[in-house]
């Protein structure tokens, strides 16, 4: 076994920073790290698959303006006008200052609103995956005709739009409950202190989505029964009421330990009351929201969610 020394710790720290910067970028306005998303296909950029497209040298060319112009998208005949308008408004690049008129031409392009800006020499560029970047650069050449769209680009009709409010209002723990794309259990670990901001790690493990709805129904039933029981006990003596509630809470805790799938939220280190309140607000589960989100995923025929039995709603 090799002893841990300062050099090993330093290499691990450097490797972590490299990995973080490979998959995320720092938003100066919000002060947060966000996932890197391709401007052309609106997909998350895989590890070590990042490239960039120059605004002036490539995108501002007339060929590119015609290729990615919002008015030139070939819509399916069944798409309503309201949906077209909403999609055009949503797919607008937000990586640059909207008040700067030098970037106003980008509003005409069908680009991901989640993409990011990078430097390309002395000029500006937008981030993209290598596949889309290679196709865009090839299409921008004057000797290439006809000009093909990247196969998975937004302008090629592969657009989803903004997520519905039913899904957007879920916090990260609630999203973990309904998520299919995990490997095993979920562990949300928060670290804080009196002189530092809250930091969080999320470890992803297996998640039994099929059992989530049953657990949600059970938890809501327990919650309703608890409220009814408390109302009935208001007439009793205070000491007897406290003893019964403590016993009931112990029983609920035991039942939850046996029934609810493992989703853990761990608070590490000293938390100020305000920091603890913020973490609790971020991780509190609203079972009604979880059920509504699952119902939306089922009735809109989203992938593997079709296997969920809708009759139990």
UniProtKB/TrEMBL annotation:
**InterPro entries listed in its UniProt record:** DUF6570
**Is Transmembrane helix among this UniProt entry's keywords?**
yes
Species: Nitzschia inconspicua
Any keyword Transmembrane? yes
Q: Could you tell me the keywords of this UniProt record?
A: Membrane, Transmembrane, Transmembrane helix
List where the protein spans the membrane: 293-312
Q: What is this protein called?
A: DUF6570 domain-containing protein
Report residue spans for region: Disordered.
232-252
Q: Where does the record place Acidic residues bias?
A: 237-251
Q: Using the record's annotation, list all stretches that form the DUF6570 domain.
A: 149-209
